[in-house]
Amino acid sequence: MFFFMNLISIVWDVDPIAINLFGLPIAYYGICWVTAFILGWYIIQRMVKHEGVSLKIIDSAFMYMIVSCVIGSRLGHVLFYEPAYYFQNPLQILNLRAGGMASHGAALGFLVGVWLFSKKWKTPFIWFMDRLVVVVASGGAIIRFGNLMNSEIFGDPTTLPWGFEFIRSAEWRSIGLPVHPTQIYEALSYTILFVVLMAVYHWTKAPRRHGLMFGIFLIGCFGTRFIIESIKLPQVAFENSLPLDMGQILSIPFIFAGIFFVVYSLSRPASYYDNLPWNTEPQMTRQQKRHQGKK
Question: For the chain, does the N or the C end have fewer beta carbons within 10 angstroms?
Fold first, then answer.
């Protein structure tokens, strides 16, 4: 049985293993990561197609993004949440099947990966960030669905009628009360952020205000993360002694960075980047054509 509702809560009884392929268990969580990358590639190539960007460049950028996100996510968990364990058992860092991925680490890894790619191609770092954050928002929503299927990263007890009972989770069984499905809260917030960013990209001057979409993403993603973390159970014991949990602490610098980029981008005149090296042909974007028609 997957789940059922009673009068006061939703009982969640989902096997985290989607299928067994030749004896190898394939988890929903892993499928969500793969789906996030495939959907992200499709979205970004559709976004920048009208900007004259070669698909070869997008493929290369996405490889940097995938590798950097996975490495950053894993190292983020190792360094932010369980450093003592992994320093004593360093080989376990490579054991991805045991779980342990941190979204803040993925964000840092993503930034490093895009920076390295920008250096290689001698292109503006912010140009990439303003576009890639759109697919990061969609990917974040999908991966949080994977957390739901894993019955992990849920919230505090609640009396609200949509409280979940994650009966397959040993952590939940130690509580025994309906809890906030914070995975769903985050997935919905990232979905809304994705829709907002897509609308901003296609129907405003945001692509001409370098850093604006990046800033909106940072504020929207980590601002909601900061709020939702306030009703989320600590992931590791040492967080109980902190005034804020680790997720909130790590979100603060990203929020301030987002405010900076929004203010900076709006304080400067809108402009296009000239002579981007990957352009396959001179081609005006949809935004350029629209604004030209208004003159």
Answer: C
